[in-house]
Amino acid sequence: MAKVVKFGGSSLASAEQFEKVGSIIRAEEDRRFVVPSAPGKRYKEDTKVTDMLYACYDLAERGKDFKNELAEIKKRYDEIISGLKLDMSLDDEFKEIEKNFKSKAGKDYAASRGEFLNGKVMAKYLGFEFIDAATVIFFNDEGAFDAEKTQEVLSEKLSKMNNAVVPGFYGAYADGRVKTFSRGGSDITGSIVAKAIHADVYENWTDVSGFLIADPRIIDKPQKIETITYRELRELAYMGASVLHEDAIFPVRQEGIPINIRNTNDPGNSGTWIVGSTGQKSKYTITGIAGKKGFCSVNIEKDMMNSEVGFGRKVLQAFEESDISFEHLPSGIDTMTVFVHQDEFINKEQKVVSAIQRMAKPDTIDIESDLALIAVVGRGMKSMRGTAARIFSALAHAHINIKMIDQGSSEMNIIIGVANEDFEDAIRAIYNIFVETCL
Ligand code: ASP
Prior knowledge:
Elements (H helix, E strand, L loop, with lengths): L2 E5 L7 H13 L3 E6 L12 H13 L5 H17 L7 H12 L4 H20 L2 E2 L7 E2 L7 H13 L4 E2 L4 E4 L4 E3 L5 H11 L4 E6 L20 E3 H8 L11 H7 L3 E5 L8 E4 L12 E14 L9 H11 L4 E3 L6 E7 H4 L3 H12 L3 E14 L9 H11 L6 E4 L5 E7 L3 H14 L3
Parallel strand pairs: 1-2, 1-8, 2-5, 3-5, 4-6, 8-10, 9-11
Antiparallel strand pairs: 6-7, 10-11, 12-14, 12-15, 13-14, 15-17, 16-17
Bound molecules: aspartic acid.
The site of aspartic acid has 13 residues, from helix 7.
């Protein structure tokens, strides 16, 4: 058995948190490969080391003095080192970083030092070998992750080792220049390492005990999702759920490796399992509810639209020309509605409208703003009659007007459009009907 364990920033924010992480790793011999983030927030108003590094490098880039800022960052690590009573110093590393900041080594290099240094501390603390991610994780010249080269080098390297620490978030171009993933990217590194060693499990340790059925800011103490499939998670993620970096799914998914989201502060909790497919029924008909406010609907009508070849293409081209992606596309016989993000659309509204007029020559174009979309997702919906009916009657009872309904052909999700102001009430009504009344 081999597990890859990734720890997020809040799990590694202080010596105390490191100790929790140490006992989690030592509790199971299978936890052989460790991927740490940079130290995160110790308390709500605290600053993540990654953000401190960005700010510090910003000064360096503008030719300003950055000594104090760098010293503050070093203090964060020194506190961890002394709290853990480790016999190590990062003096040399910080001298090197200072030199590289002065010679403007780049923003990505700067940000990556958070994980690099934390990896060094972690390796020392655990007695594991440290591997610089820049030597095993690669990006191509266009800046895209080079999965093939990485897999080759990384799996070769790790196959000879019993355990190791690989810092998250960064890798390097072929010429050795450091490049990071997008923010939260240590999740991706964990997934890549899991793939490289054909791990049995990728454990992703964070500060929550897995995914919740609904947003806890809207529902008081929502229940946890025990098991979710990758596809269900995608449906929920794209509406705004945010425990795991979206791109972290792909490497492990290719290998069929499950991800287990766990809580460093509550290690006895089994967390949430993310799996390829499962015969396990979810406790409720739905697996999760997620949503987002701030959409516009552009409603286009034209008589005989359904028989006009190329109409949809022309409409979508109008959006494409303004570089606007669409979120949903429900249609009727003579109508087509395009849901877009309001903040992206609003400044380009008239440009898009005139392009639609010019290219598709519709009878009318009607725009409605301040809409919210809610995704109700669940693999259990497929085999259940009446799911949609229950959603709609719950919303009707809550006096909520439904503006749009869209059921994906996978029968795994139903998307509902409501007014922004009805968003929270709609989620509560749906949660209540499926979870509280437990049908
Ligand atoms: N430290 C990086 C960030 O704050 C990456 C990560 O934590 O995954 O975004």
